[in-house]
Amino acid sequence: MITRDEIIDKIADLEKEYVDFMVEHFTDWEVWANISQRMADGEQVGEEEIPEAFLLEYKLIRVILKMDAVGKFDWNNPELREIFGKLAQSPLYYFLAEMVTEIALRLARHAGVKTFVEIGAGRGNLTATMLQKMDGNNVQTDLIVTDADSIVVENIARLKDRYPRINIETMLWDINTSPPDDLIGKIQHPCLVYERASILYANIPAVENIAAIADIVVFEDMYNYTGKLYAYDEIVKKIGAFPLFYREMKPLLEKCYSDHFMFDLRAQQHLGYPNTTMLIALK
Ligand SMILES: C[S@@+](CC[C@H](N)C(=O)[O-])C[C@H]1O[C@@H](n2cnc3c(N)ncnc32)[C@H](O)[C@@H]1O
């Protein structure tokens, strides 16, 4: 099996690119943390005060607080849907998709991965990037795309036709439960599981369920590395986003994998930022 040192060697250029991007993107995180506290305290804060990198997050928090004030949360609120649509198309999200998929493909090449599993695929935005890269690089590895929500089947069906050379399957899997037998039956090892922004909606114990099938994981999420929460963390809890405390994840990761590391730790250390955003673990 591939080791951490070999992984670091194969993706050193990506680590530099990722850390540089994150340091620039999150540089004003403390300004934003203070503003989110003022918003939580009921102050109306205008857009002109918001550092550009946090503008969509600001709009999200504003709409969550608005709904919370009237005691009625609605996922179909048009403003909320528009913000999520814009987030999914934002430069940050494009960058993250590029990075997760590029890392997954490089590790797969060097570890002889036979099955990719994507979890929490939702609308298939990350899947689309993965398929594009697999097709462009003529990668024949099987891809199983999963989500707890059955809408994933429809969403991925739309993508499947564009990539006839790739063996793509879609399955339902709530990662808060053990992987279903039919999923286990389709996996050839080594298996690499990747994702973006879905574990924070499932919560920490999902890590152990995923380890039941994964030999390598590449997880793009928000890991609370310092243990300190800010107002924006408290507000997004209202829409079911859990803070993924690294101190709680670590024992589980150590139990399930022989090694793990935070790919972007240098960015966290440079900024004093509370989060790391990319976890790699291997058996
Ligand atoms: C913010 S979306 C991210 C979608 C996609 N990963 C992306 O980056 O474009 C979160 C996704 O996580 C999925 N999800 C939430 N809880 C889950 C669970 N317990 N098991 C599997 N998927 C889950 C949701 O259905 C949704 O598709």
Our count of domains comes out at: 1
Order of helices and strands: HHHHHHEHEHEHEHHEHEHEHE
How much of the sequence is in beta strands? 15-25%
CATH-defined fold name: Rossmann fold
Principal-axis shape equals globular
SS field, number of helical segments: 14
Derived structural class: alpha/beta
CA-to-CA gap between the ends?
8 Å
Q: How many E strands?
A: 8
Bound molecules: S-adenosylmethionine
CATH superfamily: Vaccinia Virus protein VP39
Q: According to CATH, what is the class?
A: Alpha Beta
State the CATH architecture. 3-Layer(aba) Sandwich
Task: Report on the architecture of this protein.
With 283 residues, the chain is α/β, with parallel strands linked by helices. The chain has one domain: Rossmann fold, CATH 3.40.50. Helices cover 50% and strands 16% of the residues. It has helices spanning 4-10, 12-25, 29-40, 55-69, 78-88, 91-111, 125-136, 151-160, 181-186, 199-202, 206-211, 231-236, 246-256, 265-271, and strands spanning 115-118, 142-147, 168-172, 191-196, 216-224, 244-245, 259-262, 275-282. Strands 1, 2, 3, 4, 5, 6, 7 and 8 form an eight-stranded mixed beta sheet that branches. The longest helix is centred in the middle third of the chain and has 21 residues, at 91-111. The N and C termini lie close together (8 Å). The structure holds S-adenosylmethionine.
